[in-house]
């Protein structure tokens, strides 16, 4: 077996740049709840350093501590030395996978995920038979388990799987009369199988702006869940598949309605193939055309505002972590909301603070993620908004759970859904 320290040797200099100042303690959502040194970036980097010096091995405890991170990037954003702690912690996870392998549960889940046809069939079945297990709550897109489910907290509110995935609801190409351009829509797993209403709004908004929408039938998971778990090779396989699939569309641009998916195309795919010249160039070419939907609408398309109808609502915005600190996209969602007649935008105190979802983090650590989310919900409460807007399906689900748990009636939508509503209102008033 390769010695543990050899797995991390190439990041030794980057680890040494951490001056242990503790600024990360101020912003780490997990640390604020647990108050443990091992759960903040400084502590995790010290643990990696201990592996490098041979003081500790990559053990089950090391693996567990590396996993106790939301990958929210707040530590890197706050670091006065410019240490990208989130990336170094990810390298710690990758080293743990190489040394110990994936946790059996993750291994089986990722094995299913890697089989596109079987994954699609499984989630279609979940959509068809989900109502037998999940009880619908009296609010939009919210269900709760009827019976105990292993690994799922009984009181947790989820969103139902769709009876028909988004890619099954539309043709491969959604045409318009006089297209300004062609855009390939990367739906991602959450929108394709759960929040199809977000995907429908993306298509409605693009076609309302004379954009032809291509929905590649062979698109698959962006690979971010696998990549964040530390399995680089499987993530590269997903990335290669999507790069080749979208390169064949001939689209002018690629859009995603999820910050994490957009970040995969724009930032992670080129990085994954830095050692493969051909795929690196292909990934870079696609990255230059890839945008999160609100960024695309404002900065590239310059969406129509002359035909927007009134949406009487007071809205506050939650910025997903990979949007705010990964893509650096926060202005664009607000520009869209401010353009909608009748809509009042009220900012919460900390709109970029993590909601506690963190992809699978909230499944594995629900009680901690719930406490983190309670802080977000308390911030939302102070705004007196009737609607929460965000740009991430995972955030939408976790915030909805928090609203229900805190007996609040606000609804949570994707930003593009509110724009779609305004276009529909504009059409109806004619």
Automatic annotation (TrEMBL):
It comes from the Bacteria. It is an enzyme of class 1 (oxidoreductase). It catalyses: (R)-lactate + A = pyruvate + AH2; glycolate + A = glyoxylate + AH2. Residues 7-39 form the 4Fe-4S ferredoxin-type domain. Its EC number is 1.1.99.14. The keyword Repeat applies. Keywords: 4Fe-4S, Electron transport, Iron, Iron-sulfur, Metal-binding, Repeat, Transport. Binds 2 [4Fe-4S] clusters. Its cofactor is [4Fe-4S] cluster. Component of a complex that catalyzes the oxidation of glycolate to glyoxylate. This is Glycolate oxidase iron-sulfur subunit. It comes from Sporomusa silvacetica DSM 10669. The gene is lutA_2.
């Amino acid at each position: 077996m390769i010695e543990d320290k050899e797995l991390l040797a190439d990041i030794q200099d980057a680890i040494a740049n951490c001056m242990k100042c503790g600024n990360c303690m101020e912003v780490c959502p997990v640390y604020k709840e647990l108050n443990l040194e091992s759960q903040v970036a400084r502590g995790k980097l010290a643990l990696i350093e201990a592996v490098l010096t041979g003081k500790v091995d990559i053990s089950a405890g090391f693996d567990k501590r590396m996993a106790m991170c939301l990958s929210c990037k707040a530590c890197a954003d706050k670091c006065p030395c410019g240490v990208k702690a989130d990336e170094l912690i990810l390298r710690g996870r990758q080293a743990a996978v190489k040394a110990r392998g994936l946790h059996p549960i993750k291994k089986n889940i990722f094995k299913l995920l890697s089989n596109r046809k079987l994954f699609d069939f499984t989630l279609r079945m979940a959509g068809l038979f989900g109502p037998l297990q999940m009880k619908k709550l009296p609010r939009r897109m919210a269900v709760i388990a009827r019976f105990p489910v292993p690994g799922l907290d009984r009181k947790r509110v989820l969103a139902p799987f769709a009876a028909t995935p988004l890619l099954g609801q539309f043709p491969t190409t959604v045409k318009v009369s006089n297209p300004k351009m062609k855009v390939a829509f990367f739906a991602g797993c959450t929108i394709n199988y759960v929040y199809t209403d977000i995907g429908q709004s993306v298509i409605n908004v693009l076609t309302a702006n004379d954009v032809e929408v291509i929905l590649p039938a062979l698109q698959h998971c962006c690979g971010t869940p696998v990549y964040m778990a530390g399995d680089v090779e499987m993530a590269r396989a997903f990335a290669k598949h999507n790069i080749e699939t979208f390169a064949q569309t001939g689209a002018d641009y690629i859009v995603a309605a999820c910050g994490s998916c957009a970040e995969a195309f724009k930032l992670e795919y080129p990085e994954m193939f830095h050692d493969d010249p051909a795929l690196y160039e292909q990934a870079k070419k696609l990255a230059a055309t890839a945008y999160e939907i609100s960024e695309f609408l404002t900065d590239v398309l310059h969406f129509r505002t002359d035909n927007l109808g009134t949406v009487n609502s007071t809205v506050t915005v939650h910025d997903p972590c990979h949007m705010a600190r990964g893509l650096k996209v926060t202005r664009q969602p607000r520009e869209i909301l401010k353009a909608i007649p009748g809509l009042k935008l009220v900012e919460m105190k900390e709109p970029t603070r993590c909601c506690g979802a963190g992809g699978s983090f909230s499944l594995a650590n629900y009680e901690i993620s719930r406490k983190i989310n309670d802080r977000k919900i308390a911030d939302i409460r102070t705004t007196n908004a009737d609607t929460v807007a965000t740009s991430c399906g995972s955030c939408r689900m976790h915030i909805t759970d928090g609203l229900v748990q805190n007996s609040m009636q606000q609804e949570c939508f994707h930003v593009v859904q509110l724009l779609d509503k305004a276009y529909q209102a504009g059409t109806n008033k004619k």
